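So, can you check these tokens?
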Amino acid sequence: MARALMILPLLLLAACDREPDFDTRYDAVASEIEARAKAMDAAVAASEKAARAAGETEGGSSALPTDDKAATPPPSSGE
């Protein structure tokens, strides 16, 4: 039993060395973020391509409407 208690701190110390360092973790997360960004870009490109094929952009029927109404109210008379 005493031998096990003396070995336990050594095992705990050895286990602490297995954690990856900052650079390794940073590279892994950066790669994951880059992969997600590429996937999002591909999804946006695919939806834009589908919208162009359906004629929904650039003068198509579902393009954003142009509002002739002013976004701000007319100026006050000061009263």
User: Anything to note?
Assistant: The chain is about 60% helix and 0% strand.
